[in-house]
């Protein structure tokens, strides 16, 4: 159906009425959602302000620490408590290649929670007969008990990181598998070369470490 010029004013008027009715319906719906007024003694200082803020009071915050059970109401998932790296193994691993009687290096840019590394190390040692597994990462964050989990894992021989991220002395002294590489000479040489206009790519072939 095609509107003629004579029909257009009628349609415009009808559309305007429909828009006004819709707006009135939305306003009525929002007003009906407001909380009912509660009688308040106006002589009491702060009574009105207290009533207005009563429904905005924040809920108490429950602090969750490592190893505690996670609970919610209604529960979002079954309570979980992680006590060792062994209970975190859920991934299925497929190895492409042959590592039998070979030393394997697991490489990543950083290591924080080591569960995936430890799962891979177990798979390589138990199912693929690797001779040894070493974890190598540029940055070692080791949140919580991560370094302790690496220490008790029998399938990892060492974890090698640089000193770009500070690791507390009590953790480094307690770990026999942690190896830290000092990169200060590399950074110093790169800064010197950049300042003097020398080639920095030279360091890729002749690392001063």
Blueprint (SSEs and pairs):
Elements: H1 8-32, H2 47-53, E1 103-111, H3 115-126, E2 132-140, H4 146-152, E3 158-162, H5 169-174, E4 178-181, H6 184-196, H7 202-205
Describe it.
The protein is an alpha/beta fold and 209 residues long. Helices cover 35% and strands 13% of the residues. The chain is built from seven helices and four strands, in the order ααβαβαβαβαα. The chain has helices spanning 8-32, 47-53, 115-126, 146-152, 169-174, 184-196, 202-205, and strands at residues 103-111, 132-140, 158-162, 178-181. A four-stranded parallel β-sheet has the order 1-2-3-4. Strand 3, helix 5 and strand 4 (178-181) form a beta-alpha-beta unit. Mean pLDDT is 74; it is low at 1-8 and 58-83.
């Amino acid at each position: 159906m095609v509107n003629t010029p004579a029909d257009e004013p009628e349609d415009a008027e009808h559309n305007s009425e429909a828009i006004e009715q819709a707006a009135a319906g939305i306003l009525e719906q929002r007003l009906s959602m407001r909380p009912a007024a509660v009688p308040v003694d106006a002589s009491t200082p702060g009574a009105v302000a207290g009533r207005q803020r009563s429904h905005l009071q924040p809920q108490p915050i429950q602090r969750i620490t490592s190893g505690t059970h996670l609970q919610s109401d209604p529960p979002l998932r079954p309570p979980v408590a992680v006590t060792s790296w062994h209970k975190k193994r859920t991934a299925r691993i497929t190895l492409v290649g042959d590592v039998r009687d070979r030393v394997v290096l697991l490489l990543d840019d950083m290591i924080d929670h080591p569960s995936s590394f430890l799962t891979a190390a177990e798979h390589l040692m138990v199912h693929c007969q690797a001779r040894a597994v070493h974890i190598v990462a540029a940055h070692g964050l080791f949140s919580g008990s991560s370094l302790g989990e690496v220490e008790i894992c029998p399938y990892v021989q060492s974890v090698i990181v640089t000193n770009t991220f500070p690791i507390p002395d009590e953790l480094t002294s307690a770990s026999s598998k942690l190896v830290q590489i000092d990169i200060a000479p590399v950074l110093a040489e790169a800064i010197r070369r950049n300042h003097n206009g020398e080639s920095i790519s030279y360091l890729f072939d002749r690392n001063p470490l």
